[in-house]
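hi! just following up on the protien thing from before. the input was this:
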Amino acid sequence: MKNQSIIYLFLLLFSMSISGLAQDNISPQRKMAIDSLALEKVRDLSKYISIIGSKETAWSEANRVIERTLELFSEGAQMGVSTINQPKVKYYDIRTYLERLMALNYDKVKIEWFNIEYMSDLERMPDGRYVGVITIYQRFEGSSGDKMKYMDTTKKDITVYVERKQTQIGGRLIGFWDVLLGDVRVIETKP
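and the predicted 3d structure came back as:
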C-alpha cells in the first residue's frame, strides 16, 4: 500500500511537471506576439539612443531616457562599440555606454537604425528561456560646426531573451511572456 502511494505521488508530480512544460511552449500565435514585442523594444532602443546621443537633448532628459533604456535590458548586458579607425571592438555595460554616448565630443550627433529584422528563430535554452537574435544596421554621424568629423555604418546583432514571468493582479498570479534585450554585438563596421 505504501509503495502504491509513492508511485501514485510520483505519477501525479510527473504529470504536473509535464503540463507545466506544455504551458511554457510558445504557440505560433504567441510567437508572433513575442516577435512583435521584441521588435518594438529594439525600435524603442533605437529611439532612445538617438535622443541620448543628440546634443539638442537636455542633460536631465537624457538621464531620464537612460533610465528608461536600462529597463529594456537583462542584467549584465553589454553594448559593442567600434570605429573604422580601430579594428578592435570594445564592450561596455549598458549604462556606461549610454553615459559615454551622451558625452561624445561633437557639436552634432545623428544616430539612425535601419533594416531591423529577425535573423534567427527563438531557441529554447536549458534554463527555460528562449533566445533569438535581431540584426540591425546603425548609421552614426558626428560633426563639429559645418564639418563632418566622423561617419560609419555598423551591423549589430542584438540578443533577445524571452522568459516566462508572473505578476499579481487583483490577488491572482498571472503568467506572461516577457522580452528583454541582451548583448549588442558588433558584426562589422564600414565607412
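The chain has one domain: 27-190.
Residues 27-190 form a domain with the Nuclear Transport Factor 2; Chain: A, fold (CATH 3.10.450).
cheers
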